[in-house]
Write a structure and sequence with these properties.
The chain is mainly alpha-helical. Helices cover 70% and strands 0% of the residues. The chain starts with 6 loop residues before the first helix and ends in an 11-residue tail after the last helix.
Amino acid sequence: MPTLPTLCDIASSARAKRERRKDARPGELLAAALELFVEKGFAATRAEEVAKLAGVSKGTLFLYFSSKEELFKAVVRENISGRFSEWSAELETFEGNSADLLRYCMTAWWERVGSTKASGISKLMMSEAGNFPELAAFYQEEVVKPGNDLIRRVLQRGVDSGEFRQLNVEYGVYLLLAPMMFLALWRHSLGPCVAGNGELDPIAYLNTHIDNLLLGLTVRTPAAPNAS
């Protein structure tokens, strides 16, 4: 005959559930904040809306994050800037040539960031940075600079190995950033409105851009003259 749970067992189980719920709250709040920041923008998103979507009180939100600004920074770190160490390690251990690395970086960006809600953060910053200079400075330090540095390293790798021609690497970074930023803006503006009518295939678009970019970057061996 099965033993009935005691009051102590029930209390212990309830405490364990509360602890699991407590541990999950920061992640739930970050997911809710990302959803609303991308949908409504930073200025229009209210803390109580984030708390409600996460299923907690506004007071609970402020137990984890001292302000809406700190909540936004945590969202950026969770979804983008906190992953730069991982991405940097991938760059260091990549075994293919620099053309393959460039293609891998751009398509991996789309799969991991561009195709997710996190890409809406770029659109948010472009539209609201002027009104929130502290957040703009934070984003510049934690996302823009390390992101540009990764791209710069890819290009410099190709130049140093003799695969890519000499170029102004500082400005070459923007050749790669341009299509990525276009896709981020497109996904969170016109993209959802043109499904089935001029819809864009992001991977095909990126590959077309990369193919043309490599035509300009790659050092080509001059053809040998025909024997007379």
